[in-house]
Amino acid sequence: MKSYARVFSLRSCVSTLALSMCVFMVNVARAQSASAWPDKPVRIVVPAPAGSSLDIIARTLADKLKDKWKQPLVVDNKAGAGGMLGIDVVAKAAPDGYTLGLGFNGPIAFGPHMYKKMPYAPGKDLLPIVLTTSQPNVLAVNASNPANTLPELVAWAKAQGNKLSYGSVGNGSSSHLTMALLESVAGFDAVHVPYSGSPPAATSLAANETQMLFAVAPPLVPLIQGNRIKLIAATSLQRTEGLKSLPTVAETYPGFEALAWNGLFTAAGTPPELIARINADVNAVLKDPSVRDAMVKQGFIIGGGTAAEFKTFIDSEGKQWGAIIKKVGISID
Questions:
Q1: What are 114-125's pLDDT values in tens digits?
Q2: SS3 assignment, position 46
Q3: Using CA atoms, how far apart are residues 162 and 223, in angstroms rounded to an integer?
Q4: Are 253 and 186 in contact (CB under 8 A)?
Q5: DSSP code string of 142-210
Q6: Do 40-133+260-328 and 138-251 share a fold?
Q7: Local structure of 129: helix, strand or coil
Q8: In this predicted structure, what is the pLDDT of residue 331?
Q9: Is pLDDT at 33 greater than 80 in this prediction?
Q10: Which CATH number fits domain 40-133+260-328: 3.40.50.10490, 3.30.70.580, 1.10.10.10, 3.40.190.150?
């Protein structure tokens, strides 16, 4: 019996050692894989059109990351369905780090509270990597609009009856929800006209096909400089660097805040070592003085931080805006 016990103990020890060696070898293989990545071009899917705010951010990051990774970064614009078209591509990609996506509020944190059915589950099918930037939306109107302040615009909007419409960069976007929130707190009604990104939404405003638009500032600059549209207010709680002369909505409606944010995501199942590698490299790029200067000049607030911090932030945004979506009553089939 004692001999059998010794044999059993020996076998158990050998099995435990083999398992430990297996785990060790897997971890070594993962680490080596992460350090060898990438050995081919990396695709960044942008769920918005060329020239949009997301496109600008993706190309700015790609220009620096290609030097770090010694591989080309291909920016792939896939606009549509409120950003879900492009994010769905990322969710269904191979979990190998070669397909990244620049996601934003709408198809990540807001969608589950608005859409009866989504082609992917953000919390299950995607892994957050890093917050890239955030920025306030700005409220823009046609240059011919008689209003020059938010109180004047609200009074004008109320006088329009059922003639007023507003554009957005897509169903369920921060652009859409911010206007829905303003309608609720200011007490006016307007018809929502969604577009696939900020360039067509801004063009519609400049042509006076729609009368108001919340969007981030960079894509609007050429139309502002061309005196085709003008800005009324920003949605940060306090005035930000680069928009110091623009009043905030909170100065008229205290507590009003609506930031548009974006960050890098990849498919669930991607090795944690690779997530950590990409996170570290993007954080380094975001600290580059030339990148920071370029971003700040365009009204962006630099992001950064760990993947875990980004996930916590997304969960918080979903909870906060989920309550607003329910209160306002937004539901999209």
A1: 998 999 999 999
A2: strand
A3: 27
A4: yes
A5: ETT-S--SHHHHHHHHHHTTT--EEEESSTTSHHHHHHHHHHHHHT---EEEE-SSHHHHHHHHHTTSS
A6: yes
A7: strand
A8: 86
A9: no
A10: 3.40.190.150
The C-alpha atoms of residue 114 and residue 106 are separated, in whole angstroms, by 10
Q: What is the rounded distance in angstroms from the CA atom of residue 182 to the CA atom of residue 188? A: 8
**Alpha-carbon span 168 to 192, nearest angstrom:** 7
Name the most confidently modeled range: 28-32, 113-117, 326-330. Answer: 113-117
* Type of residue found at 100: L
pLDDT at position 171:
86
The amino acid at 314:
I
Q: What are phi and psi of 156, to 5 degrees?
A: -65, -45
For residue 328, the number of C-alpha atoms closer than 13 Å in the C-beta half-sphere is: 26
Output the six-digit token pair for 108. Answer: 């990540």
**Hey, what amino acid is at 12?**
S
Given pLDDT bands bounded at 50, 70 and 90, which one contains residue 12? low
pLDDT, greater one: 15 or 176: 176
